[in-house]
Structure formats: structure tokens, C-alpha cells
Amino acid sequence: MLVVDDEPGVRKALQRGLRAEGMDVVTAADGPSGLQLASTGSFDVVLLDIMLPGLSGYRVLERLRKDGVTTPVLLVSAKDGEIDQADGLDLGADGYLVKPFSFVVLVAQVRAVLRRVGPETGRGTLRLGALEVDRGLRQVHWSGEEVGLSPREFALLDVLVGRAGTVVTKDELLRAVWGEEQAVTRNLVEVYVGYVRRKLDAVGAGALLRTVRGHGYLASDAELDEVITP
């Protein structure tokens, strides 16, 4: 989940609460950063404040929909007027929350949106810099050049880019890529990360996958590093 809000206290509170609900949360503090992160297509839902520095939530949403990003967006505003809500929904928002809102209601809305969109959200294209991961066609391109991956390698890269900007542990990769297969160890994760990294290296994209020692693996680039708030 991506939370875009310019108030540090709000970001921290939502990040803490949503993580307690079992969600992975990335935050951004302004409109341009939120747009850059959301444009990757790697989030299941975006919680987007309307009053943001640099670019309003309305304009962020408008740009996302214009660029074909279909990620569900819940708008947040201190305004409760019908016109404001209608404007947001007309731009392609999937819901509208008025501040101050109940955290319980927020979580319920997030889950309701995810139920509505269902598995279709997993069929779009993920973008990280010049890297594109087409989940529908199961193809990967770097600056237009195809990167040939095996089905297992694609699944691993899909998980990592799908959670770009966050560290994914070896255990999480084991569950997501290998499921309940017997005799699969963490060492196999290292082997396959190596396979994928070498193929990305061959086209100049190897730096996108990083090892975070003692924790797991991270898919990110310099631009993404700059906009993710701690």
C-alpha cells in the first residue's frame, strides 16, 4: 500500500497501523513523489491526500489514469462537500475519505476496494526505471530490450518489483515463488536471485536488485530511493 500525505505524524500513524493489519506500507510526502511511486504500478492500493505540496492529489490521480495506471486510489480530504467528492470520483478515484476518519473505516474501505478489483490487479505492468514487467504477457523489458527469464525467474522478479522499495525476505520469496514445494531451501533463493541478476546485468539493469545483508533483497533505483520517506 502507498500512503501519500504531507503530515509526518499522519504518515507514521498510518504506516504503523496498516502494518499491524498485515500490509506492506510505503509512504511519500508530496505530490511528485507520490506520482513517481504510484506510476510503478507496484501497489495494490494508494491512499492519496488531496492537499499536497508540489502537485495536488487531484492532479496525481489525473496523471495516473491518463498514463493507464489502474491501481485503486482512495482520496483523503478535509473537505466533505459533495462537489469535492464528485470531482475525485470523476477523475477515477475508487473511494473518498473525509478527515478525521476512523482507522477501522479506512481498513474496511481498503479491503472492500481490493475485493472489488479482485485478481485483475495482478495483470498489469510494473515499472521500475526503464524496467517493465508485464504480468499479463509474463515478459520483461529493459529500455525496450526483452530480458529472457524462465518461469521461476520471472516469478521471483515479479515479487521483488511488485514490492519495489521494500525489503523482501528469503522466506517470503520461498512462499511466493515456490509455495509448499518440498526440499526447497533458502539457498535456492540465493541461486535464483543470482540467475536473475546476471540476466539483468547483461542489459545494464543489474543494479536494480540489491542484497540487504541479514534481511533479504530489495528492488529499487536511485530515483525511487529519493522519494521514499523513512
Write a structural description:
This protein is of the alpha/beta class. The protein folds into 2 domains: 2-116, Response regulator (Rossmann fold); 125-228, Winged helix-like DNA-binding domain superfamily/Winged helix DNA-binding domain (Arc Repressor Mutant, subunit A). It is 43% helix and 19% strand. The protein contains 9 helices and 12 strands. The protein has helices at residues 8-20, 31-38, 57-66, 82-90, 103-117, 151-162, 170-178, 186-201, 222-227, and strands at 2-4, 26-28, 46-49, 73-77, 95-98, 125-128, 131-134, 139-142, 145-146, 167-168, 209-212, 216-219. The strands form 3 sheets. The chain has a 5-stranded parallel beta sheet with strand order 2-1-3-4-5, with helices on both faces. Strand 1 (2-4), helix 1 and strand 2 (26-28) form a beta-alpha-beta unit. It comes from Amycolatopsis balhimycina DSM 5908. The modification 4-aspartylphosphate is found at residue 49. One of its GO terms (cellular component) is protein-DNA complex.
